[in-house]
Amino acid sequence: MNRSDIPSLDDLRAFEATARLGSVRLAADALALTHGAISRRINKLADDIGVPLFKKSGRGLRLTPAGETLNLTLGRFFGELEATVQSLRASHGEQNTLVLSCEPSVAMRWLIPRLGNFQLQHPDIALHLAVGGGPVDFHKDRVNLAIRRLDFALPETWRVLRLFPEQVGPVMQPEVVSMFEQGNYLALGSKTRPEAWAQWLKKHPSVPHPNEIRYYDHHALIVEAAVAGLGVALSPYILAVDDVQRGRLLAPAGFEPDDSHYGLIWMGAEELNGVESRLAEWLQIQLSDFMAA
Which residues 6+ apart lie within 8 Å of 218 measured at CB? Predict the structure, then answer.
């Protein structure tokens, strides 16, 4: 076979993604293409090779024997290609580049104010920060590590280092404390946890209910609103700790664990090494101070 007879790489990628994910729709999402584009590429690949690669199975698709054979070869091919590209990047000075994904509110309220310290201690590491919540697409987004609240199912291939337990409590300006105690206050909640106030009030029946609960998109916004005197924010401790320590906010009811944890997650080897382990160690030191506060 001449090299010119090898099918298009785009067609092969469409086939491999569909076989791996088990769905044309999921493959389209993964490759940022339309459902129709994926289908056309798979059909063109089957025509170029001269054999059917998928057959319908109920509402889904199933690989034919020829498709199974091609999929095994492509799995080895793309695996070796990925390893080669990573090796080339490392040999050209990117071995000290690190991409950390972090939940938006934790990034804005806790992590970013401390990253200057990390850069001073590790000037050789080029740390790139991305924000996001929930599951991570490590390969697509080229993420090395991610900080997440562990409130969703984790794939077996993910590794987790537990960082700290979530603790939640109402925070407010000092001038608002008396209003809070009298039940004459506006509660601020996050749309990401719409039931949080109801659950907290149920656990604290002696606390008067608010006049109203208003919801913002993220926890970082409700903490900023509390600092501005707009109401009482039901905040995770990590987001309010700096303002509480400076006296800008008070937490008269304290903070209590909500049985969830935050963790550092990654894919691959069980133990971190290189620049990833250095970031993990730095995070643990920062969090030891935070937990002792």
Answer: 104, 105, 190, 191, 192
Contacts of 68 (CB under 8 A, 6+ apart): none
Per the structure, how many domains does the chain have?
Answer: 3
Instruction: Give CA–CA dist 163/74, Å, rounded.
Output: 38
d(CA 173, CA 252): 11
CA distances from 204 to 165, 212, 232, 254 (A): 20, 17, 15, 12
Q: Which residues constitute the domain of residue 282?
A: 94-164+261-292
pLDDT at 93 over 70: no
Do residue 83 and residue 216 come from a single domain? no
pLDDT in tens, 111-120: 999 999 999 9
- pTM score above 0.85: no
Kindly report the CATH number assigned to the domain that includes residue 186: 3.40.190.10
Residue-wise pLDDT for 43-79, tens only, equals 999 998 999 999 887 777 889 999 899 988 888 887 8
Cα(73)–Cα(185) distance, rounded to whole angstroms?
Answer: 64
> CA 223, CA 231: separation in Å to the nearest integer?
9
